[in-house]
């Protein structure tokens, strides 16, 4: 029995296409997720030191892309150990009970050259909401660089309970900015 070239080539092509659609590996050393907010009307930027991102992205088929991000809430670094400990407490992130904030995409759509619109579910401190935000994507040193910003209201996620609900000290609006570098 002999094999014909047609089915063999089709099988090899299918394997190659499946391999190119493999999830991308995040370069966490060159990636960052930050939160920017105002405290007493002064802008503050804090960096999450621990997070993971799972990205399945093929620029030829962006609508088939998927993304999920998990952030260690206790890893927020405000530049001061006492403040870092404070935001991990129950009134803020309650990191003991809710150690992770997460985002899972439900839809990724092209929005022009190098631009996508991402929709999905954001969960922080046990509260979930559907969100949508613009995302840019471009090649950087042979890898895909994803950048974007998502404004949220912290009170919608019960971040800053008790006396911290007063927005005259810490504003309600928080902008989550991200820069994720990922490749094969």
From TrEMBL:
Gene source species: Massilia polaris
Domain Lipid/polyisoprenoid-binding YceI-like, residue spans: 23-183
Alphabetical keyword list: Signal
Signal sequence bounds: 1-21
InterPro entries per UniProt: Lipid/polyisoprenoid-bd_YceI, TTHA0802/YceI-like_sf
Protein name, as recorded: YceI family protein
Pfam families listed in its UniProt record: YceI
């Amino acid at each position: 029995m002999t094999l014909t070239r047609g089915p063999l080539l089709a099988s090899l092509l299918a394997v190659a296409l499946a391999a190119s659609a493999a999830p991308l590996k995040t370069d966490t050393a060159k990636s960052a997720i930050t939160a920017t907010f105002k405290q007493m009307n002064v802008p503050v930027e804090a960096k999450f030191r621990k997070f993971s991102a799972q990205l399945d992205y093929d620029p030829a088929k962006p609508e088939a892309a998927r993304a999920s991000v998990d952030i260690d809430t206790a890893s927020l670094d405000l530049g001061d150990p006492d403040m870092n400990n404070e935001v991990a407490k129950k009134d803020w992130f309650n990191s003991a009970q809710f150690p992770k904030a997460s985002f899972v995409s439900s839809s990724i759509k092209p929005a022009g050259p190098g631009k996508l619109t991402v929709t999905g579910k954001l969960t922080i401190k046990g509260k979930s909401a559907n969100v949508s935000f613009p995302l840019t994507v471009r090649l950087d040193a042979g890898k895909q660089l994803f950048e974007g910003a998502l404004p949220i209201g912290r009170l919608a996620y019960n971040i800053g309970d008790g006396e911290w609900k007063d927005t005259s000290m810490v504003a309600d609006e928080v902008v989550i900015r991200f820069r994720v570098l990922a490749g094969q």
